Amino acid sequence: MPDVVRVSRTLPWREAARESDALRPMLVDQFRHEDFRGMRVLDVGTGEGRLAFLAASVGAKVTGVDLDRVKLMQARAYAGVRDVRDAEFVVGDVEKTPYHEFVPGPIDAVISNLCMSQEIVFHASRALRPGGKFIFAAHHGDHWKETRRGSRWAFYEDTMRGLLEENRFSIDFMGVDTTVARFEQLREVELFLRDRTVQRWVEDGRWQELSDSFSRGETHLTLSYLIVKARRTAAPYTLR
Ligand SMILES: C[S@@+](CC[C@H](N)C(=O)[O-])C[C@H]1O[C@@H](n2cnc3c(N)ncnc32)[C@H](O)[C@@H]1O
What atom in ligand 1 is closest to the CA of residue 113? Predict the structure, then answer.
């Protein structure tokens, strides 16, 4: 297992906001270092398809899957406008459905940006051919740590390493990309986050935790991502 690569920066919130929605450069780098030409790729939790479009732009034939029909319509519209022929989008639950129902035949890579769970690792492992790649960004356990509850979809390095190994993956790259956004006042966090997130945090108590942290003079918010490239080993699953 290679050493974990760590990138960390502290930025004034307006600067952090400019890049907070972008795909993490550390994730994009994993695509630069792979030859995707002709590969059959599944993008799980594709949303409006931006990772799928990245894979298609480097030669992959991609199927993007999501539960959200509106986002998928946007992805299809974008594919139509840009004349992207190697990306298709289907509705499905990537935590419950075997991936061969989305892509018949061998799958060369499963990719994901910010849609990750134990179930997804399980299904990716069973769908990928030996040597097939699993490339993703997930929330890291430190993501939004000032709210005490962080993100439901977050993983620390060790947990993810164990999960991947249990599911017959060998890890080629693991990185943690962290940005600490600095604020002067709590009001600025409302401008930094989307309304929907603020509302959710008010309802579930995370806003209060953040407010307490600001009262103690800790006027920052951590955004942290775990980026992984792993390979399906040839080890078969045995019936117990
Ligand atoms: C944070 S968004 C990321 C979207 C996209 N990957 C991107 O980078 O823009 C997470 C996406 O995962 C989708 N999602 C969550 N759980 C899912 C599931 N069980 N099956 C399919 N899609 C799911 C959501 O609908 C949402 O579009």
Answer: 6
